[in-house]
Amino acid sequence: MLLATQLERVFILKDKGQDIRLTDPEPRWSVEAVLNFYANLYPILTTAKVSAPQIKDDAVEYKFESVMGTKG
Question: Are strands 54-56 and 48-50 parallel, antiparallel or unpaired?
């Protein structure tokens, strides 16, 4: 028998060369809502974009990537 389980969402923020793992504050929220939630703690997220999700270690990982200082 097959069992379907929902994968945990994990959000990765790269800050000062280190990866910071952020937990999902509310699984029903959209990824953009989570980004806005964490922008209060990490102001760099106000100019960040979200990368495509990747499945790693039984979790769906989203990376918040800062677009600060890039052109184009």
Answer: unpaired
